[in-house]
Write a structure and sequence with these properties.
Low-confidence stretches: none
Number of helices: 12
Helix content: 40-55%
Largest sheet: 4 strands, antiparallel
Distance between the termini: 42 Å
Number of strands: 4
CATH architecture: 2-Layer Sandwich
Length: 222
């Protein structure tokens, strides 16, 4: 079944031109009907399916979906609303930094991905050790047929220019040891969102990255 209609994207196209509280309040009914409701239903569907392989993932869509209101406290851009919806599928919700999956649908772009974006110093060292001592396993994950087909076999993230001495030589063999973040992304199209198989597309992408997430989760486990 199709979860979204063209009205979903029309709302965000109009919001980009009228990003203010007065316009949003006048169009709140449309937002509830065409955006918030369908997205929550879709997130619930994805959660239900992910639970089959990830029984430890939380099942409350309200904890997974990011608020549409922007945090403008420290931003030069004072537009009050995001022009997209987003959700994080993981073990406890939007504040969880452990490996999970992300979905972003908006006027400008549609993409999904996962891994670890916010990596603190302690977890970064654990991940680097895991890569260092299990280099062949890590290399095989990137070369996995599905991961390569859907994500290009690429891990994204900022890198340290200076590495601890023990990793400098190894970095010539595996440059990802220098990463400060470990995430992957795939761009999709509006046509994918509007199709009746969008849930299958999303789940296919997440399944292709499950082993990579497991590698990260194992690395940071106490």
């Amino acid at each position: 079944m199709s979860y979204f209609t063209p009205a979903f994207f029309r709302f965000f196209d109009q919001l980009k031109k009228n990003n203010n509280k007065e316009w949003f309040d006048k169009n709140r009914e449309t937002y509830e009907k065409e955006v918030k409701g369908p997205f929550k239903q879709f997130v619930t569907r994805i959660m239900t399916e992910l639970a089959k392989d990830h029984p430890d993932f939380q099942q409350n869509p309200s904890k997974a979906i990011f608020r549409i209101n922007r945090d403008i406290r420290f931003s030069k851009d004072k537009s009050p609303y995001k022009t997209n919806v987003g959700a994080l599928f993981n073990r406890s919700g939007t504040k969880d930094v452990r490996p999970g999956y992300y979905l972003h649908i908006g006027a400008g772009e549609v993409f999904l991905g996962g891994g670890m974006y916010d990596v603190d110093k302690a977890n970064l060292e654990k991940i680097r050790q895991e890569i260092y001592y299990n280099a062949d396993t890590f290399k095989k994950l990137l070369a996995d047929k599905s991961f390569k087909a859907l994500y290009g076999g690429v891990v994204q993230g900022e890198q340290n220019k200076i590495l601890p001495a023990e990793y400098k030589e190894f970095a010539k063999e595996q440059p990802y040891i220098a990463n400060k973040q470990f995430y992957y992304m795939a761009q999709l199209k509006k046509e994918d969102v509007l199709s009746k198989d969008f849930d299958k597309v999303v789940l296919k992408h997440y399944k292709a990255a499950a082993k990579f997430n497991d590698f990260l989760l194992h690395a940071i486990a106490d």
